[in-house]
Amino acid sequence: MTTPEVERLIQRLKDKDAGVRRSAAEALGRLGPDAKSAVGALARALRDEDKNVVFDAAFALGRIGAASVPALVDTLQGSDRSVRRRAIEAIRMIGREAVAAVPVLIHELKDTAGDIRCHAAEALRKIGKQARQAIPALVELLKDPKVDVRRAAADALGDIGADAVPALCQALRDDDPNVRFDAAFALGKIGKDASSAVPALIDALENDVENVRFMAAETLGNIGAAAEVGVPALTKALKDSDIQVRAAAAKSLGRIGRVAVPALVSTLRDADARVRRRAVVALGQIGPEARDAVPWLIEALRDDSLCTQAAEALRNIGRDARSAVPALIEAMKDEKGDVSRVASEALGSIGAEAVPHLVKALETGNAHTRRRAVAALRTVGPEA
After folding, report:
1. 86-113 pLDDT, tens per residue?
2. Which residues of 353-379 are buried (b: 16+ CB within 10 A; e: fewer)?
3. Domains in the chain, please, with CATH?
4. Per-residue pLDDT tens for 29-87?
5. Gyration radius of the chain's alpha carbons
């Protein structure tokens, strides 16, 4: 049903003054789904001679949402390029509810204008997995002569699904580094279902462009345990010349999990303190499954450059770090920096095994140590 306000705005879309028409389109956009009875009038406004009116009409259709889709699909059939461009932008705004537009968007992927192909790929990305019938056309677009189009296609494929993995692996070798980055990013969005891409991503860790190496490292972590064959390459990447690559490699080793523990332990003997620190952080991310690293983390507690991160890792490992209790008690006595607080948290996380040591610290320690011991015992709770 058309409300009086919407009807008034529809009539103003016909005004001779472009400013009036534009303000009417803007107002309908602010109403959103409540202006769905204006869809037909707004679709006609996409052909307005004033480009600002066209822009605001497209925005309004996008704000109205699913009710606009049939009119936008009709607009894409037989309209000139400028009108189609705005209709595609409106569909992109609508996103998942615009699934009925997928067939016409696939057709737009073949347009001779690169920006239309880009916009259509972006709209399909917003629709997501329901646009999987567009995968073959988007894969073909990975060969497009225009870099922006190839990038948009890769990005869209990452949101649509795992069927695109082989093509995205090919795109990791694209001549343009931005396309290679986007292909790695797309595989990361696919995640665990992109496990077949692991060899190609390992190769990408050797790319001569830093952000490509960074995204390859990130994506291996997104794939998780299925990327375990990438552990040696990620361990090597801990020494990469780029700090972002090194950080991503450490994070991903932590996400891959227990299979990465031996490699991370061996890295704790690296000559570079920054590399050792990243390895300790990764072990902490792994948590209880990094229990085999406890002896080396105890050693790391004695390293001023690693002690806080080592205490955090032991805290995350929890009860299986019980052999670290004496070393953590010593670290808890430190009155400088964060290590004392984190050591107290680690002792609380270990639980009952730490209680006798904490009680002794209450009896013999200074005021600082006693405060930390009390905090740890509170964390232990009833077991204390």
Report:
1. 999 999 999 999 999 999 999 999 999 9
2. bbbebbeebbeebeeebebbbebbbeb
3. 1-94 (1.25.10.10), 287-383 (1.25.10.10)
4. 999 999 999 999 999 999 999 999 999 999 999 999 999 999 999 999 877 898 999 99
5. 29
